[in-house]
Amino acid sequence: MSFFHRDVHHGPQASNRPQSEPGQLSGDNTVAEWLDHPVGGAIFRDMLHKAGQNESVLRIVRRLSLNRLIEMSKGQFTQEMLDDMVRRANAGEMPDGAPVPAETTAPAKTEEPLPEWKEVVTPGRFDGKTVIVTGAGSGIGRATASRVAREGGRVIAVDISEERLGDLKHELNDADITTIVGDITNDESIEKIIHAAGDRIDALANVAGIMDNMTPLHEMSDDVWNRVMSVNVLGMMKLSRAVLPTMLKQRAGAIVNVGSEASLKSSAAGTAYTTSKHAVAGLSKSMAFMYGPSGIRTNVVAPGAVLTNIEAKYESELGADRVNSILPTAPDAVEAPVLAASITFLLSDDSVNINGAILPSDGGWSVQ
Questions:
Q1: What is the pLDDT of residue 16?
Q2: Per-residue pLDDT tens for 239-269?
């Protein structure tokens, strides 16, 4: 299983989870609690080993409950699998070949949870503004569209999934949200987006993107390269180019392009994704330089490990070994609204004096 970039809904913290019997495990226990348990840890590690993984892939989600991993895993980790793990762990059934644990009378110590971050909406921050958000159907894009709408903005929400956009619209039925089903690499979709926005476009959040399959260059296919570069760079370029005439006429606008930890270093993904996100940084810097004097600010938010619906597949043994080797040092993964807070700051007038910046929103991973 891979847990790098997956989408889940915000859930309860460890401090207010239902408590199981002393020494017993349930789906409400965290990854860390399972791994620290003498029997549960052996079962969990055995399952990962049989899937060709090890516990390092769980480092960034160690504070999450196993119930939430079900939501994240897109069928790779099922309720039936969890139920079987719970039954075996609480019955003391060790995997074949695993050492019998020493008897213990006290549960393993776990870290105290950090204080929970709470989103604080700023009423009216986007009053009177039209903001285009791509990838708005899920993950970071949905959290960004939601935050802008709840802060008074008119949102043009763009995604390839009509169903996900419908869910967003239903969730915020009192907000001013226009949904556009389209592919940002397609010229007709670009025209639909610009037409829906109308005569004024105050801000653009280029969030839509896809992950590669973690392949290094000698194993990378043309298909992976072309697909990743098309969505992550070509689509972003096309929509940015399309909004610029309106912003130039207004002599005002804010564009935020979502990069990645892979915009800053080479150890967070495969060759195609890393190249694409470095290109996002270069494109954004050029835009900032060219259009800054015209009142248009362009900045980059570079997320670290985020629980979104962008799925990372490991189709290279070398790629998996190299990328997984850095995960033990990575900060915990965060929820999409945490990234939306960074993005909406740069979209808003609060960042009036910021242009050409690459903002690492990664819990400090980039300074390691």
A1: 38
A2: 999 999 999 999 999 999 999 998 998 888 8
Instruction: State the pairing for strand pair 203-206/130-134.
Output: parallel
Q: Which residues are catalytic?
A: 273, 277
Spatial distance between the Cα atoms of 325 and 56, rounded to a whole number of angstroms: 8
**Phi and psi dihedrals of 230, rounded to 5?**
-65, -50
Which tokens belong to 226? 């072309």
What burial class does residue 315 get, using C-beta atoms within 10 Å of its C-beta: 0-12 exposed, 13-18 middle, 19+ buried? middle
First to last CA, the chain: 25
Clarify whether residues 85 and 146 are in a common domain: no
Domain extent for 62:
14-91
Q: How confident is the model at residue 343 (pLDDT cuts 50, 70, 90)?
A: very high
Is 328 within a domain? yes
What is each CA distance from 261 to 143, 216, 223, 357, in whole angstroms? Answer: 19, 17, 23, 14
Q: Which of 238, 162, 163 is nearest to 194 (CA)?
A: 238
Instruction: Tell me if 319 is assigned to some domain.
Output: yes
Of residues 201 and 12, more confidence is placed in 201
CA atoms within 13 A on the CB side of 140: 33
Q: Do residue 227 and residue 84 come from a single domain? A: no
Residue showing tokens 């921050």: 125
Tell me phi and psi for residue 332, to 5 degrees.
-60, 145
Which of 32-41, 86-95, 335-344 ranks highest by mean pLDDT? 335-344
With both helix axes pointing from N to C terminus, report the angle between 236-250 and 271-291 in degrees, rounded to the nearest 10: 10
Running DSSP on this structure, what letter comes out for residue 331? P
Q: What pTM did the predictor assign? A: 0.81
Our count of domains for the chain comes to 2
